[in-house]
Design brief:
heterodimer, A: alpha/beta, FAD/NAD(P)-binding domain, 3 domains, seven-stranded mixed β-sheet, 14 helices, 29% helix, B: mainly beta, two-stranded antiparallel ribbon, 7 strands, 31% strand
């Protein structure tokens, strides 16, 4: 893999490849490695500064983990695989090209086949005080620590749902923070049943035992974050009681939301995912409803690194036309079962939909209060009359929350998919006239 | 943390600062200040939330251009301005 290629010809503003892979996490890198022996030209994009995705994120606060190093090492044998980090997708350009932007250039990337490995983001739900500095996502805190955020000596409360909470707690403790509480909204019964079922996945059982935290509580969820200029305390429901903990940080994440925006913009069909959101729909060969577009990893439904790697491998083989070989990747079924167990035992309790007060902001970009959105009929109404979801994140945070709170369908994605420079937008072809 | 750390010198909100190589701007704003990245449309101070380039709360001006602090690594000579890039 050639990671030091110069930016594409900035005069032509064009580049072409046989297979374009969007996302350099477990799915994207596995897809690249599976497709590399074909000798076809492959480009792997990622909007982060380094490959690894969220689960293998590394930086000033964390070294690259061994599965990432192994994949990268294996890819060095293939100079026709080019990795472009720090590059985001701005818009589609017809069915076989994307408009891309990096810190210092922009270009149209053509492809014959596309493998979408966009991953998932955290589900963030509104509660009083959630916009205070010091409140982050759970995976969000972990990502920030890995990129050098100092937390030594800080008192941290972690709340929300799912196995990610323990991983976040481990990262925080390792970085010298005092983790006061890990509040899991699911019940003891559900978490115990989940733990007992891990016998089928010994590596996960060992991981769970390693991550086990003395401050872990079930039946517990955040009620409010309190503070003036920044976070000072957190109020939690603990069974039938309300407890208050003074702290410096609150990391609250309620599960994962598949990143389907680019797939939807390209016309790929979606399906309902377990937690109520949508995921990209794929067949046994990871093909989407659009024949030359494949999807793998958490954009097809959250399931962890192992499932993502298996799906990526299948997608890479299928893109090469090696369907028979792809059919022999048996790991997918095993890890899909694991993902299903996570969904089953960490289902969100209904109380989480009524944490926000009328004046709690729902849309953080446009500062739209929960009360004014709750009075709307649907997402479009909230958007047109309250400007909910009209800001820079384009409803990725509040739209996902509204899906849980009100059962509204996710907002339809529009170009540009992320804020972009005017000079980048000027490269858009006539097919993208809708660009503002 | 890497044991033998190379330091990167840059300007954060007018102050010359140095941070370990590989540090994101989001982390650097906490290492060298209060971590605030922007003012919201109603004037509230905001800081990074998702840490992975989605929520857009961490956008700051880097050498005059709006960038996400959580996805941008500190580089030598960089000039970062936070607090007013809403």
């Amino acid at each position: 893999m050639n990671a030091t290629v110069p930016a594409p010809n900035t005069f032509a503003n064009q580049d072409a490849c046989a297979i374009l892979i969007v996302g350099a996490g477990p799915a994207g890198l596995s897809a690249a490695l599976a497709a590399a022996p074909s000798g076809r030209s492959i480009v792997v994009l990622d909007d982060n500064p380094a490959p690894g995705g969220q689960v293998w994120r590394n930086g000033a606060g964390a070294a690259p983990p061994s599965p990432l190093r192994q994949l990268q090492e294996a890819l060095t044998r293939y100079p026709h695989v080019r990795l472009r980090c720090g590059t985001r997708v701005v818009a589609t350009q017809g069915s076989h090209a994307l408009l891309l932007e990096s810190a210092d250039s922009a270009w149209v990337q053509g492809f014959e086949q596309l493998i979408l490995c966009n991953g998932a983001r955290e589900l963030l739900l509104p509660f009083p005080g959630w916009t205070l500095p010091g409140v982050t996502g759970a995976g969000g805190l972990q990502a920030l620590i890995k990129s050098g955020l100092p937390v030594r000596g800080q008192r941290i409360v972690i709340a929300g749902s799912g196995p990610l909470l323990l991983a976040a707690a481990a990262s925080a403790s390792q970085a010298g923070a005092h983790v006061l509480r890990v509040a899991e909204q699911s019940s003891w019964g559900q978490v115990a049943a989940f733990g007992a079922g891990l016998l089928r996945w010994p590596s996960k059982l060992i991981q769970a035992a390693t991550l086990a935290h003395p401050a872990y509580r079930c039946d517990s969820y955040v009620l409010a974050a309190q503070g003036e200029a920044s976070l000072q305390a957190v109020q939690l429901r603990q069974g039938a009681q309300t407890v208050q903990l003074d702290c410096d940080r609150l990391a609250a994440g309620f599960g994962l939301v598949p990143n389907v925006e680019l797939g939807r913009l390209l016309g790929c069909a979606t399906r309902r995912s377990a937690q109520g959101g949508v995921a990209l729909q794929v067949d046994a060969e990871q093909t989407t409803s659009v024949p030359h577009i494949f999807a793998a990893g958490e954009c097809t439904g959250a399931g962890g690194a192992e499932l993502s790697m298996a799906e990526g491998q299948i997608a890479g083989l299928a893109a090469m036309g090696q369907q028979a070989k792809a059919a022999h990747v048996h790991a997918r079924g095993r890890w899909q079962d694991f993902a299903n167990r996570v969904d089953k035992h960490f289902a969100l309790r209904p109380e989480l939909s009524s944490l926000a007060q009328s004046d709690t902001l729902l849309c953080r970009c446009e500062d739209v209060a929960y009360g004014s959105v709750a009075a709307c009929k649907n997402w479009n109404d909230a958007k047109l009359h309250q400007r909910c979801g009209m800001g820079a994140c384009q409803g990725r945070i509040c739209g996902a929350a509204a899906q849980v709170l009100f059962g509204w369908d996710a907002p339809a994605p529009r170009p540009p998919l992320s804020p972009a420079r005017v000079s980048t937008l000027s490269l858009a072809g006539e097919e993208s006239e809708a660009l503002p | 943390m890497n044991s033998a750390q190379t330091m990167v010198h840059l300007r954060l909100n007018g102050q010359s600062s140095k941070v370990p190589a590989g540090t994101s701007i989001a982390a650097a704003l906490y290492l060298c200040g209060d971590g605030i990245t922007r003012q919201s449309v109603s004037g509230q101070a905001r800081a990074p939330v998702c840490g992975m380039g989605v929520c857009q709360e961490c956008r700051v001006l880097v050498d005059g251009y709006s960038q996400l602090a959580c996805q941008t690594l500190c580089a030598p000579g960089m000039v970062v301005q936070s607090g007013d890039a809403s």
